[in-house]
Amino acid sequence: MTLKANCPILSIILFLLISLCNTGACPATEPSKTFTLGELIRMALETSPKLRMAEQDILAAKSEYKEAKGGGLPQVDVSALTGPMENATFPTVNLKTGQIISHDKGTWSIGIFGDLDLVISQPIYAFGKITDRQEAAALGVEASKDARAAQRNKTVLDVKRLYYAYLIARQGRQAAGDADNYISDAERRIKKLLELNSPNVQSSDLYRVEAYRGEVKAFAAKAKAGALTACAALKAEVGLPLDSELQLKETEIPQSSFKLAPVEVYIQQALSNRPELLAVRKGAAAKGKLADAAQADLYPTVFGAVVASVAGAPGRQEFDNTYIYDQFNHSYASFFAGAQWHWDFGISTGKRDKARAEYQKMLNTEDFARRNIPVEVIKDYQDVVEQQKASTDYHEAMVGARKWIVAAFSNFDLGIGTARDMFDAIDRYGKNQGNYLQALYKYNLALANLDYAIGEMTIKH
After folding, report:
1. What's the burial of 17, exposed, middle or buried (CB within 10 Å: 0-12/13-18/19+)?
2. What is the reported pLDDT for 96?
3. Residue 203: predicted pLDDT
4. In contact, 430 and 446? CB cutoff 8 Å
5. What's the burial of 13, exposed, middle or buried (CB within 10 Å: 0-12/13-18/19+)?
6. How far apart are CA 453 and CA 381, in angstroms?
7. Looking at residue 459, what is its pLDDT?
8. What per-residue confidence (pLDDT) applies to 219?
9. Comparing C-alpha atoms, which of 237, 98, 248 is closest to residue 159?
10. Handedness of CA 284, 286, 287, 291 (dihedral sign)
11. What is the reported pLDDT for 400?
């Protein structure tokens, strides 16, 4: 019998290492408080930096929508100008001789003038370049909301994974303690029979006990180191201080009692509700609108405009003539209609082709997600079915191994059994119990994965 093959609680200790959790509370300096899974999830959702980043993405998308919406509203340009200018008055001219008979000769002075110009322009028809960008921005807002929902589901899944690992480790530690008690009980029986010089025991049986315990202590030290990391990870996920104590209100991981619906139901739910797919679908639609807008950029924009201007120079006499424009003293307003058409040699068509390529890429991404999400659902569904059956089978095996321990101990006391029989029974019990707890952990984790795969927290467990 080799040590690794027969250590009764080796499988449990290894599982503790895999789950990276501890059964006791993490070191703390604050008063302890117990938490349920729902409370931990709410804490994580309230404090998650990734969710806050997703919310900022929504605000940014709304700003882009506001900008696109403003593209169809009037644009107002106002400019003001002031500066020095020469004061002047009209001269008096003798019409018969053409001579100037009155003029401010020898007087030269500098005055000031001001000018205020106003242009109000309103797009009338732009072949879709404005409306397409508005619709794309609106779809971008919805896609950002779906991305936030996807991050929310990912946060919930991360909390569940750490929670179940922490909880199953507590039960694993208790199971390890039970197995250790069986070893101690066997040790006492062996010592008692050795004192009586019984022929069915040997001193080497005590060495086997010592070897088992030494192996357990080595793996327990590794499990403790992993537990500290797991506790810190769970605290960070839910926003607890590292020096706080983390205790779970529930003491046992949920049993495998959930009744699944047909897998086709979950596939349909995933295709309808999975936020990642919805975000990609709306993102593809937005890219399509941007491609249409890039095509519309090749066409003119018809607009209407109101132009008004007023200027005045107090030291300069106003010259009121329809045919001569007085730059320093005037006031007018008028309405215009026109079209603006931008031409270039490859810039606009290059932008259009790029927008079309990005749209096609998003369509391919959507198609990829639509094909693979059902596969993910089926995989998680089968994991639930497999681990549910495994936990039931291992529980029955664990009960049988416990009966075997009782029989082996009784036979040993009666002198018809050996110490090897006791250790074989203890070893099988420890392995079956460890496999049972691991199956329970994987079952609950598979349910959490299935929840995430369908995009809704609809599976109760």
Report:
1. middle
2. 66
3. 83
4. no
5. buried
6. 10
7. 46
8. 57
9. 237
10. positive
11. 94
pTM value is 0.78
pLDDT at 156: 93
Residue showing tokens 């664990």? 398
From 54, 58, 62, select the one nearest 150 (Cα to Cα): 54
Q: Phi then psi for 316, rounded to 5 degrees?
A: -125, 125
> What's residue 303's pLDDT?
93
Q: Are 203 and 10 spatial neighbours (Cβ–Cβ below 8 Å)?
A: no
Contact 394, 432 (CB under 8 A): yes
| b/e burial code for range 366-392 (CB count within 10 A of at least 16 → b) | beebeeebbebbeebbebbeebbebbe
Residue with token string 């203890």: 426
Low-confidence ranges of the chain (pLDDT < 70): 1-32, 90-107, 173, 176, 212-227, 256, 457-461
8 Å CB contact between 423 and 3: no
The pLDDT, as a whole number, for residue 1 is: 37
pLDDT at site 253? 79
